[in-house]
């Protein structure tokens, strides 16, 4: 017998009362059950069948797939929940989004999309008839077909079901600024063991019940992972209830104790679902009617959630070859693995399929019978068809205020010092002010540390727990999302973007590696998404990385890692963009470009400390448009002649050192023709056959010369520059200086020296690479070396960079 | 007034009773307080002072550092806890390890190590006198000095305090198989918001109270992060208690309500600490005396923990410039930021320092007074001196059974098919059997999926919650640690390794990116650790990556990512090793090598599906020793002559395709001299100036030729091979095929074709690259192209690879 209890001693008797009160008639639950059976049938068929899809003939071994791929275990639970959600969507005209957290939920989301008609609308070759069902079955987990997870190809999905752990964060991201939306998110109990999921439970502290929608978490305890029980399913139930209440939720338990008594399970789940939706509405009403309503943590609301305890592989074979399967880890993948060769397995499969009574569900042509089909909500209310899961449909372009009002004047390159991030923060403030329901700024407690504090002039950080007098810029609603979890920042933002809104994730450069794998999944999602005609472009994922490797005076070695760029460029070139603006105005220009773009991952790296400004507003815009360019003001070229040496740079600190090195050479080796090249858009370095931003070979050779030494000072690991430029004519002449994993708590210039990107080292390298120069300029070389040694000595003795370096300005 | 309550209604009155019962006399607590004051004094001094360390003269602006770096906020709380732990260590002769989770706890761990004498023993230039204190102060967060976090340089530390989130997992790793050890881990409330930390609370389900030690978590709620309140500190206390009880703990709260009443705080904390240690001992005793003692989740034990709620920046300036500082986020870094220029700040600093009454703590020479010094435990009981924090001291080499007993015979290369991982599992079984207290195998629910199931013949997976009849290989103790969290696997293993034991982390290749950032921190730790004479070598961190990119028939695109290798090679060459054994015997040889090594990160990638065996046991050992070699059996070279083309490969699937391509060429283009080179140790490709494993240039040119085309089939992203070989003579002749981020749910050979590493593509590339061959062998080229097309067509139609490919064997 199934039981349903809440924390406050809600008794079993509640169940039937509620069912009566809410008017869940027998007929309604029968419709739910038919839908569930149809979805289960289509799920099993996807895993097993390649012909005879409706079992109109006795099942033969040849009707089954030669390779059985896919996973059954989680599927019937997902189908069960989906069927129940449809009931309330229909009844209440709910805008609801479905997030399938458990791994390998592909058969379920696809089956339900087909039942709702969405699948055939999108994929015409998978029609609403027997031939369509046959194709639905054939394509699943089949070469050239569709994946076994919820994926971009799955209508209604915004969350890849492969890696696990991100469903709850995605769900929250989807409802921010969507007050009418309820996102039902099924969380697998395997997934629930991951760190990101464990952290996500606290997300409600960042959700404003008045201006945001609601998340209904459904923790699905089917008890097992691939080969093990799960922690949450095995801990005592009173402990689990404490845990969920500790997370701030009000859990309601639905436990399927008798797998055969599906009627009871339906009644229990329906009652609990109604109760949860009622509580959600009550919370929303109170906050929307009274802005001063009590908040969570002040004796106020607790968001409801459901714990569904049902057998893994529910309704599948109970035992196979004498071993229990239903309700165990053995139901994880394919419960009957030898249907092609084992007659008993084949017979069991046939019985299993027949147990869903397909004849009651599909007519002679294989169309869904009307008394199943009416289980689907109408039009866009279908969870498989909701525009929220195809966010490009809802996307409104950001209103981007002119950034030139925030740009700094640059009377002379290199003389003024400005923090690029503070400058950007002032523009971001205006971006936020003009897009108060369409843009958010995410960061792990670092927005002010990264110097974007100007945004707090127009908005606040969201926080629902107690707010004390000493707190600054905390409020019940706001545009800034701060939590000390890069996983949550990324997960929320992904959910926000894929439902059509815009955002920026600002992060310490080193620690963005925490979300490497989430980035992978999002970049893979975008790659597939871009090829699907029916998916509309979504806003780009914008990373704004600051507090970077060269400015870690406080933090040292653990905070020094510029490798996220390397990680990112492994992903498809059409998706990845990397920008290293050298100063404040170029940062403004780059960010404007990124915020207006769609379907990319943009990575922007910028320092936060005051640093020289190089280009005025117009020059900055032009430079960024080209992506790279020769800085004649910094070099000593003779017009019309090839330079002797090229000093190239990418990144703000390398740019300072490169310009300084050019100055040292101009002073010490007059007559030497030095070209300075600055690279903003890193992908310009790649061949145009490899990246859409790649510079054509002829243009590249014109800038970097075919054969002159190129001393390249790069922000990150040097190998990346070689990698990007490896098809270039002059790649043998390319000598890259960058971060060599030498670091500690020290001054910025000492860091540059430790890794050999300092002005002295660059100038010496130029002397050594230009034929003959080391001989004619031995004294200069020695002088540079001495000055370098003195700078190191000074830093060690005084704890700070030498004054002439700290206050360095470009001469003239 | 401070309050101390436990879940069971333990009242304030308990406190004093306990203090009396346990005999915590006033004198004992005064000693604790003196220690705390001394540690606080030394912490403030590290942040501020460069001279006049003991304030023997009135404080002058010039006595302070010109740049104020470091963080005060968390430090007094850490010092408080440390002082109290020392009391019980002394009393009970406890073996205790201290893990400082909060960020920027450096001043505290360093101060305590100095007080304990350890610091001066290790770093002779920082003596136990006034000059030593001056140096202690000077070096902190100073160029060439020490970092502001707990770090390898910090005596007593196994956990970097930079990135946050891993302290609790590290703590658990340290106590596995250390039954006598209690690890006290301070968890910052900022850190507690991270996903990995949130997941770590469940770790006790994997700890055997009989055979493992204990972890005492101390959740330090000082209320604020950099700029925000923390979630755990702001949620209602009853909710927090539910949360911690939901995690399975028994929390005891110590709340400092009056920061000035430190005596009360000492009494409260001492009483709770005694109670926790008593409960730990009771749990251990019951399990060690009775193996059938009730377990957690069966009405059995709950491990105790402490929640210390104390003001951020406790004992620091209460207000600065009229704003509250103590007890707020403003105490996070340097509370008084203008001591050099603001007389009021300087005066406040002097008062602050004097509040610790240094004259009572240090004698005229600056030595610690005996009635402070006796607060330190003796010898190795000092937490700063415990050998557990310098695990190399305790490291016992693994007993490695001869792997040749498990090696497979290879009568002919390529004819038999064996799963390398199953073969390895059989050897790992013996490794485990011979090292039952010194080795563990970690994995996220994937040990069987990765085909290492043979280990279950001798051991089990650890699990403390209920074990059901249907479960297999679950037990209260065992060598296999499975939890669906890569973060936990990595964190536990790091703690286990750094305390001197051995282990392997087996993981799906794609999802090891989840721990990219943890890998970064560990590799950085090792880099620094290796330079510290006093730190002894620790066992290597071994990654065994399977279920790799080429064998994802079930899982598809989300599971396809070979980029961890790229990520890893950015770290210091002396630390990183990467192996791609092509078959079962080479995998055995490589793993034996890795398990015997120290101070490396070894990355081993191997498929789990049956695949051709190439080398017999002796040949495999030789091949692995060389790291790469020419496979004459696969090529068609003429001895003494240069080949026309080199087919090189790294990785098991690329090796199969390369050998097959060579066979296609031998059949189709007799007379063509094809050399086949297999690379096991990827670092051999790098120049020997860049990596200790790098092959000398002359040897490299001998194998790869200086100028012949090299068609290189690589397991991962092609750019890495170019990157590693970019200094090589023949790098222009290098044509790399690898994963191009083209994937989906499809067959292995279809994956190879999608990404152009299949035999046909490789053979065609060879034809195209050898001058003249495309002209003379146009028909062969066309035939290969046709066969490739037919293979794709067959896969699309039949859902499987063509039989001649599935069953492919090397001819002759």
TrEMBL record, chains A, B:
<dbReference type="GO" id="GO:0016832">
    <property type="term" value="F:aldehyde-lyase activity"/>
</dbReference>
<dbReference type="InterPro" id="IPR009014">
    <property type="entry name" value="Transketo_C/PFOR_II"/>
</dbReference>
<protein>
    <recommendedName>
        <fullName>Probable phosphoketolase</fullName>
        <ecNumber>4.1.2.-</ecNumber>
    </recommendedName>
</protein>
<feature type="domain" description="Xylulose 5-phosphate/Fructose 6-phosphate phosphoketolase N-terminal">
    <location>
        <begin position="28"/>
        <end position="393"/>
    </location>
</feature>
<dbReference type="InterPro" id="IPR019790">
    <property type="entry name" value="Xul5P/Fru6P_PKetolase_CS"/>
</dbReference>
<dbReference type="InterPro" id="IPR019789">
    <property type="entry name" value="Xul5P/Fru6P_PKetolase_ThDP_BS"/>
</dbReference>
<dbReference type="InterPro" id="IPR018969">
    <property type="entry name" value="Xul5P/Fru6P_PKetolase_C"/>
</dbReference>
<dbReference type="Pfam" id="PF09363">
    <property type="entry name" value="XFP_C"/>
</dbReference>
<dbReference type="GO" id="GO:0000287">
    <property type="term" value="F:magnesium ion binding"/>
</dbReference>
<feature type="region of interest" description="Disordered">
    <location>
        <begin position="785"/>
        <end position="812"/>
    </location>
</feature>
<dbReference type="InterPro" id="IPR005593">
    <property type="entry name" value="Xul5P/Fru6P_PKetolase"/>
</dbReference>
<dbReference type="Pfam" id="PF03894">
    <property type="entry name" value="XFP"/>
</dbReference>
<dbReference type="GO" id="GO:0005975">
    <property type="term" value="P:carbohydrate metabolic process"/>
</dbReference>
<keyword id="KW-0456">Lyase</keyword>
<dbReference type="InterPro" id="IPR029061">
    <property type="entry name" value="THDP-binding"/>
</dbReference>
<dbReference type="InterPro" id="IPR018970">
    <property type="entry name" value="Xul5P/Fru6P_PKetolase_N"/>
</dbReference>
<dbReference type="Pfam" id="PF09364">
    <property type="entry name" value="XFP_N"/>
</dbReference>
<dbReference type="InterPro" id="IPR023962">
    <property type="entry name" value="Phosphoketolase"/>
</dbReference>
<feature type="domain" description="Xylulose 5-phosphate/Fructose 6-phosphate phosphoketolase C-terminal">
    <location>
        <begin position="608"/>
        <end position="809"/>
    </location>
</feature>
<keyword id="KW-0786">Thiamine pyrophosphate</keyword>
<comment type="similarity">
    <text>Belongs to the XFP family.</text>
</comment>
């Amino acid at each position: 017998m199934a039981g349903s209890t809440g924390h406050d001693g809600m008794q079993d008797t509640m169940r039937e009362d509620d069912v009566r009160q809410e008017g869940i008639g027998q007929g309604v639950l029968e419709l739910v059950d038919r839908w569930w059976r149809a979805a289960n049938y289509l799920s099993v068929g996807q895993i097993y069948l390649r012909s005879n899809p409706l079992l109109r003939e006795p099942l033969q071994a040849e009707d089954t797939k030669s390779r059985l791929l896919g996973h059954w275990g989680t599927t019937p639970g997902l189908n069960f929940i989906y069927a129940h959600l449809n009931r309330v969507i229909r009844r209440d005209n709910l805008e609801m989004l479905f997030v399938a957290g458990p791994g390998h939920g592909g058969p379920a989301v696809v089956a339900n999309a087909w039942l709702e008609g969405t699948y055939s609308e999108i994929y015409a070759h998978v029609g609403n008839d027997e031939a369509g069902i046959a194709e639905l079955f054939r394509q699943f987990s089949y070469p050239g077909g569709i994946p076994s997870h919820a994926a971009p190809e799955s209508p209604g999905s915004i969350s890849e079901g492969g890696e696990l752990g991100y469903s709850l964060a995605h769900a929250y991201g989807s409802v921010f600024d969507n007050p009418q939306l309820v996102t039902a998110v099924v969380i697998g109990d395997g997934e629930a063991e991951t760190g990101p999921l464990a952290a996500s439970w606290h997300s409600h502290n960042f959700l404003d019940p008045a201006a945001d929608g609601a998340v209904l978490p459904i923790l699905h305890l089917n008890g097992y992972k691939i080969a093990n029980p799960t922690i949450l399913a095995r801990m005592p139930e009173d402990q689990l209830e404490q845990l969920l209440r500790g997370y701030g939720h009000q859990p309601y338990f639905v436990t399927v104790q008798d797998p055969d008594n599906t009627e009871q399970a339906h009644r229990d789940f329906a009652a609990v679902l109604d109760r949860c939706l009622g509580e959600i509405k009550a919370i929303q009403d109170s906050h929307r009617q009274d802005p001063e309503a009590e908040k969570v943590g002040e004796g106020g609301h607790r968001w409801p959630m459901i714990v569904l305890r049902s057998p893994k592989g529910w309704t599948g074979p109970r035992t196979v070859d004498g071993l229990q399967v239903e309700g165990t880890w053995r139901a994880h993948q394919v419960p009957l693995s030898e249907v092609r060769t084992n007659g008993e397995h084949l017979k069991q499969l046939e019985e299993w399929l027949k147990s869903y009574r397909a004849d009651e569900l599909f007519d002679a042509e294989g169309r869904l019978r009307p008394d199943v089909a009416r289980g689907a909500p109408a039009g866009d209310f279908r969870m498989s068809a909701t525009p929220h899961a195809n966010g490009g449909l809802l996307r409104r372009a950001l209103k981007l205020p002119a950034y030139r009002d925030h740009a700094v004047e640059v009377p002379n390159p290199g003389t003024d010092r400005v923090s690029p991030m503070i400058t950007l923060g002032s523009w971001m403030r205006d971006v936020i002010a003009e897009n108060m329901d369409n843009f958010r700024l995410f960061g792990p407690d670092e927005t002010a540390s990264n110097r974007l504090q100007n945004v707090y002039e127009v908005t606040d950080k969201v926080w629902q727990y107690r707010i004390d007098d000493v707190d600054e810029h905390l409020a019940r609603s706001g545009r800034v999302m701060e939590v000390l979890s890069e996983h949550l920042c990324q997960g929320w933002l992904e959910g926000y973007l894929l439902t059509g809104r815009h955002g920026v994730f600002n992060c310490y450069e080193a620690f963005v590696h925490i979300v490497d794998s989430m980035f992978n999944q999002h970049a893979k999602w975008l790659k597939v998404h871009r090829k699907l005609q029916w998916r509309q472009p979504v806003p780009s994922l914008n990373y704004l990385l600051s507090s970077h490797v060269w400015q870690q005076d406080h933090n040292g070695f653990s905070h020094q890692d510029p490798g996220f760029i390397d990680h990112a460029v492994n992903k498809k070139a059409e998706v990845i963009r990397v920008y290293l603006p050298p100063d404040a105005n170029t940062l403004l220009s780059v960010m404007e470009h990124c915020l207006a773009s769609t379907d990319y991952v943009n990575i922007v790296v910028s320092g936060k400390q005051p640093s020289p400004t190089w280009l005025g507003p117009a020059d900055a815009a032009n430079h960024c448009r080209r992506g790279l360019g020769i800085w004649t003001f910094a070099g000593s070229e003779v017009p019309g002649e090839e330079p002797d040496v090229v000093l190239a740079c990418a990144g703000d600190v390398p740019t300072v050192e490169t310009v300084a090195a050019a100055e040292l050479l101009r002073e010490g080796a007059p007559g030497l023709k030095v070209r300075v090249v600055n690279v903003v858009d890193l992908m310009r370095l790649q061949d145009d056959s490899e990246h859409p931003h790649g510079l054509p070979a002829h243009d590249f050779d014109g800038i970097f010369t075919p054969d002159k030494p190129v001393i390249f000072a790069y922000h990150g690991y040097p190998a990346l520059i070689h990698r990007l430029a490896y098809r270039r004519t002059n790649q043998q002449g390319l000598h890259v200086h960058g971060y060599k994993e030498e670091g500690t708590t020290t001054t910025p210039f000492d860091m540059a020296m430790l890794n050999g990107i300092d002005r002295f080292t660059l100038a010496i390298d130029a002397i050594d690479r230009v034929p003959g120069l080391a001989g004619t300029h031995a004294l200069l070389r020695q002088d540079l070396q001495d000055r370098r040694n003195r700078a190191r000595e000074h830093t060690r003795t005084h704890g700070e960079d030498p004054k002439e370096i700290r206050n360095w300005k470009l001469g003239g």
